[in-house]
Amino acid sequence: MLKTGKEYLEGLRDGRVVYIGGEKVEDVTTHPAFAESAKSMAALYDMKADSANRDVMSYEEDGERFSMYYLRPKNQDDLRKRMRAHKRIADETCGLFGRSPDHVSSFVTGLAMKPDVFDKIGPGYGDNLMAHYDYMRRHDIYAAYAVLPPAGARNPEFYQKKEMPVPTLKVVEERDDGVVISGMKMLATGGVYADELWIGNLLPIADGREAEAITCAVPCGTPGLTLWSRKPFGQDLRNKFDYPLSAKYDESDAMVLCDNVFVPWEKVFVHDNAEMSRGIYVQTPSHAMGNHQSNIRFWAKMQLLTGVLSRITQSSGNNQIPAVADQLGRMAALEATLGGMIHGQIEAAENWPGTADGAPEDYVTINRRYMYAALNWCTENHSMIIEMLRELMGGGVFQMPADVSVMANPELREKFEQFWATPFLESFDRMKLYRLAWDLVGSEFAGRHTTYEKFYAGSFFVVRNHSFREAPWDEFHKIVDRQLDAMEVPEDAQ
Question: Structure pTM?
């Protein structure tokens, strides 16, 4: 079933508890801090459900239609279909929703491509995963994940000295019908707008702390679960014009606090297994499929940044300067580089994980090495790209009136239109352009995105470790060894 935007918004009124500081939000669909972004999310569902987008955004299986990002690819054409759907979603939001509904869904779809991995955990966990995958696609679920412990939880001695419990989320009770979890997880980006949370672990768990090795799905309206939002960027805006991106594309980030939250066994996928709590993502195509989506999402953002950069230089006539044209060419090359890396992931697709025990299908995965290379590329280059836009924008943004209210005063409007125009762009159009650019480089929203892109997939060494893990070192060494073996050694040196 493909949800409409109206159905999606109705689902957000599920009794979820969201806090902004000390304020409890009664309804995220109407609260000024969240309403506009909720509408943007709803627009994605309407776009997806539109019959005109049927073949791009959904696929048919056994007579039913599901969102394309739940498709388990069996060939390169399936990977292309998924890529086109990801790109269409990213284009709708200019890549500014990092955790759009196709992100975590792709992680779960990757898990469902190799469910036998869950047999290492114990009987029934693979069945739970497959049943939940089917549930997600049938109900068009939007999931967000919280898969990291709070910062201080990595130093339990601190809490022991204070005679306080370690705050990280863990199982506190096992029952015949499920488990009870308590504690904190971070960081549920998009969680305010999601149907459910995927709770798990992307970092290693120390011996003796197996109670933290829990992976499960929890609806956002579950009693005992609360979401503690950071400051929403749209909350205090006087109008949408002056911060056009902050107003409608703030996906929000929230800490997740569970206070004796009950999870039925059928929604538990890993329990009491520290190794597999993290291992399920890289021993299946999960991590690859989810981060392929993030590559595509960044590509859409690159295209927005490239267009804004060009428009800024056109507005001043600086695009005619050879040095500026050189920078524009550099930006265009960077955008094309990422696009090529994404297409390369499909053209060099892997026949992995292959056929699972007892499963009739073979599945394929995008090329993992190329995906991780692109992930590293995005992590390393975003700040540089933003700085390039900042340099070419110069001080133009500071020359604009404080806000758009200047247009409501006839006398001031006349002066503004007279003195702020350039031979290349009218005053009001310049203001619009600079407001958009500032929301990409200088606003709180822009600052959050700079940090997000730098640490989305972890610190630099974490991102590069994926490339280290997947690299064919034996092949590289053979190339070197072949040259070493072919070296001629003088007789007197033998």
Answer: 0.93
